Amino acid sequence: MTDLGARVTDLFTRIGAPPPHAGAQQVRSPITGETIGRVDHDDADSVGARVQAAHHAFAAWRDTPAPVRGRLVYELGRLLREHQDALGELVSIEAGKIRSEGLGEVQEMIDICDLAVGLSRQLCGLTIASERPGHRMMEQWHPLGVVGVISAFNFPVAVWSWNAALALVCGNPVVWKPSENAVLTAMATHAIATQAARTAGAPEGLIALLLGGRDVGTALVDHPDVALISATGSTRMGREVAPRVAARFGRYLLELGGNNAAILAPSADLDLAVRGIVFSAAGTAGQRCTTLRRIIVHRSIAADLTDRLATAYGTLPIGSPLDEGTLVGPLINRRAYDGFVAALDAAREQGGQVVAGGQRVLQAEHPDAYYVQPTIVRMPGQTAVVQQETFAPILYVLEYDDFAEALALHNDVPQGLSSSVFTTDLREAEIFTSAAGSDCGIANVNIGPSGAEIGGAFGGEKDTGGGRESGSDAWKAYMRRATNTVNYSRDLPLAQGVEFG
Ligand code: UN1
User: 321: which DSSP letter?
Assistant: First the structure.
């Protein structure tokens, strides 16, 4: 067994899950490209069986009082606290995140569990004034049914937990199909969740895991007993999922591509801005859906900002995410690296000038792993390559002369996830966050577009798919609303003053 494979065994043992070393499919770590596990994939039959079992569990779970359902999520949060180090390290090994981000990912899971436990006592509907005497109108929120979760490699476990914690307190079973590039973290998380479900006395089959590729995902998406599909991934994937679910009048919640920008106004605090930009653009090796991909900088400060960023980029330690001090880990695989190279070729063809980075590194030590330098490219305008999302650490720099032009450039991309402005001008900050400003689901002032906390609703518009997850009232997506009118009088007045006999 390889070194990292042995480490995986150790981490699984600590978590209390059977080590994943039997199966037909190899699992590789992006850190070295070495094999770290073997698993078996599901097929259409096992998808059907899991969904059926989940659907069966729904009847009992739906009738369990919400605060009692909250105990399962409380237990999940408790176990995640206990296993934060082990699961966080597994995230680093499988997804290539630096240690702090691996731990942060598990922290995000714990945070949503805390939120969901509180919510389990606050799933409240409105009482609405009735126009009829002796009548009361109210809304109730009821459990929806089986929730299918399709997640991406880059937040291999947090995104499941955003969905699962809410879905579970809302009274729904959860069937999860993780990315093929992140099956081990999913298996470990599933083992933890299963333990929590047992402790809480939840019905069998309530929480299920499906491993596999597109065929398994499609079987889940098409299953008539899956009430909601929550899918995170590329816009291309969302375009396939949404019409399939809509065709059977199922519900979907989509978190798709982002092409997030920051506007740098002349009044910006540049020291603060540089720190925010470097974290958002180079952190996670540019592989967050919230990664900063475009800078729109006022011409008067463009040279200064670009110099400062290039200097900062030159000092970023690139290497194994398990090493102390590393800030930039590997790309997930060869395909991601090919995408990086293709985007830089296109950027150069479209008039771009690389001012920092641009190269693959550590190739001699790790021929099967893909480490690249975070890269800055000055662009003459918002060309085709700038408008597309490339899942790699490439930051395009565009210049503007007046704020209206900056806003127009900002919104002139198909995606609408996250955004930010760096300014100390109150008017610019307010305009940016107003209806006439950023068209994204997330619009920040003086922080970068990535690293959202759990309390707010997370998601975006346009090609990002329109879904909202995690905080605020995102829980409503996991429930169905019933409007009830109750007549406590001895008469039967009709609405709209209608007389009938
Ligand atoms: C993602 O990249 O799919 O806001 C999610 C952030 C994280 C979540 C990112 N809290 O960057």
Answer: T
The answer to whether residues 114 and 457 touch, using CB atoms and an 8 Å cutoff, is no
- How far apart, in whole angstroms, are the C-alpha atoms of residue 147 and residue 63? 17
**Does residue 4 register a pLDDT over 80?**
yes
- Best residue among 288, 332, 453 to mutate for probing ligand 1's pocket (most ligand atoms within 8 Å of CB) is 288
Which residue type does 199 have? T
Q: Please give the distance, rounded to the nearest whole angstrom, from the Cα atom of residue 283 to the centre of ligand 1.
A: 11
Question: b/e for 337-346, b at 16 or more Cβ within 10 A?
Answer: bebbeebbeb
| Nearest alpha-carbon partner for 17 in 112, 83, 99, 97 | 83
The atom of ligand 1 lying closest to the CA of 288 is: 2
Using left for φ > 0, alpha for ψ between -120 and 50, and beta otherwise, residue 459 falls in left
- The question of whether 255 is a catalytic residue gets the answer yes
Query: Given a cut of 80, is residue 1 above it in pLDDT?
Result: no
Helix (H, G, I), strand (E, B) or coil at 26: strand
List the domains of the chain with CATH numbers: 3-256+465-482 (3.40.605.10), 260-445 (3.40.309.10)
Other beta carbons within 10 angstroms of residue 405's beta carbon come to 13
Tens digit of each residue's pLDDT (9 = 90 or more) over 183-242? 999 999 999 999 999 999 999 999 999 999 999 999 999 999 999 999 999 999 999 999
How confident is the model over 270-312, as pLDDT tens digits? 999 999 999 999 999 999 999 999 999 999 999 999 999 999 9
d(CA 3, ligand 1 centre) in Å: 30
Pairing verdict, β 146-150 and 226-232: parallel
| Helix residue ranges, H only, 44-123 | 44-62, 66-82, 84-95, 99-119
Euclidean distance between CA atoms 446 and 39, whole angstroms: 44
pTM of the predicted model, to two decimals? 0.97
Distance, CA of 24 to chain centre: 29
